[in-house]
C-alpha cells in the first residue's frame, strides 16, 4: 500500500459460511474494516443483502468490491451447491443489483481431477458463463497436485485483470488436508495506477488454529512486500477469525 491514504469508508453486509466466520477486511498495512455479519441460520429463507463499497480514489466515483463465501465444499457440507451458485448469479444479473468492480468468492471448490474427476468444475464454469455479460473476466484456482479439492477461491471482474500469482499455504492443520487452501492475486489498473486484489481463505478451526492463521498471514504479507510494495493492495476473503476475539484484536 502506498503511503498516501487512498482508502475511505467501507461498509459491508454479508452472510459468512458460519456464524463465527470472517469479521474483518485488511489491506497491506493491516488497516481494519469491521464487517456486519449475520448467520446462515438467520438468513436461510431470505436473500442476503450484500453491499460493500470501497472508495479508493476520490477523483473517481467509487470502486466496489464484493467478497462472499458460497459454501460449496465438495467433502463436508456444501448442500445444494448448484442452487447456491445459481442464486448468486441470478442476483448479480438482476438489474436492481449494483455492479461491482471486483468479486472475490471463496469455497467454489473444484476437486482434484486425478481423484474425483474434476467434480465441481461444471458448476464453477456455469457461474462464470452466466455472469459474463457483467463480469467478463475471471481468475480461477489452479488444480491441486495434492489434496482432494483446490483452494476454492475465484475472482470475477468487470474490468480486464492480469492474473499475477497464486500459492498454497505452506502451513495448515490436518483438517485442511482435503483442501489446497492459499491465496490468489490479480492486478487491475484504476486511474493509471495498478491495484492488486488478493483473495484468500485462511485455516478453519477458530482459536485452535490461530497460530496457523498468523503464519498464513505472514506468507501473504511476504508476497506483498516482495512483489507489490509500491502498489495499492486489497486483501479480502474468509479469514475464519471471530469478531472481538484476542486473535481479531491482535490481527
From TrEMBL:
One of its GO terms (biological process) is phosphatidylinositol dephosphorylation. It comes from the Eukaryota. InterPro entries: Endo/exonu/phosph_ase_sf (IPR036691), IPPc (IPR000300), Sph/SMPD2-like (IPR038772). One of its GO terms (molecular function) is sphingomyelin phosphodiesterase activity. Its EC number is 3.1.4.12. Residues 80-243 form the Inositol polyphosphate-related phosphatase domain. It holds the Pfam family Exo_endo_phos2. This is sphingomyelin phosphodiesterase. It comes from Rotaria magnacalcarata.
Amino acid at each position: 500500500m502506498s503511503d498516501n491514504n487512498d482508502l475511505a469508508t467501507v461498509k459491508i453486509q454479508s452472510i459468512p459460511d458460519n456464524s463465527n466466520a470472517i469479521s474483518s477486511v485488511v489491506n497491506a498495512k493491516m488497516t481494519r474494516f469491521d464487517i456486519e455479519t449475520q448467520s446462515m441460520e438467520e438468513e436461510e429463507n431470505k436473500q442476503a443483502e450484500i453491499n460493500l463499497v470501497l472508495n479508493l480514489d476520490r477523483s473517481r466515483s467509487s470502486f466496489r468490491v464484493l467478497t462472499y463465501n458460497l459454501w460449496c465444499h465438495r467433502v463436508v457440507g456444501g448442500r445444494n451447491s448448484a442452487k447456491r451458485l445459481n442464486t448468486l448469479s441470478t442476483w448479480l444479473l438482476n438489474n436492481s443489483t449494483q455492479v461491482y468492480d471486483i468479486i472475490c468468492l471463496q469455497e467454489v471448490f473444484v476437486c482434484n481431477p486425478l481423484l474425483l474427476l474434476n467434480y465441481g468444475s461444471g458448476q464453477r464454469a456455469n457461474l462464470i458463463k452466466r455472469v459474463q455479460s457483467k463480469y467478463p473476466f475471471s481468475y480461477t484456482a489452479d488444480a491441486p497436485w495434492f489434496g482432494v479439492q483446490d483452494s476454492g477461491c475465484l475472482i470475477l471482474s468487470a474490468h480486464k485483470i492480469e492474473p499475477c500469482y497464486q500459492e498454497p499455504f505452506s502451513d495448515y492443520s490436518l483438517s485442511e488436508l482435503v483442501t489446497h487452501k492459499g491465496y490468489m492475486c490479480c492486478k487491475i489498473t484504476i486511474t493509471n495506477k495498478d491495484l492488486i486484489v488478493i483473495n484468500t481463505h485462511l485455516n478453519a478451526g477458530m482459536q485452535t488454529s490461530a497460530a496457523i492463521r498468523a503464519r498464513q498471514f505472514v506468507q501473504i504479507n511476504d508476497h506483498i512486500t516482495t512483489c507489490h510494495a509500491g502498489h495499492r493492495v486489497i486483501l479480502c476473503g474468509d479469514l475464519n477469525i471471530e469478531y472481538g476475539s484476542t486473535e481479531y484484536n491482535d490481527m
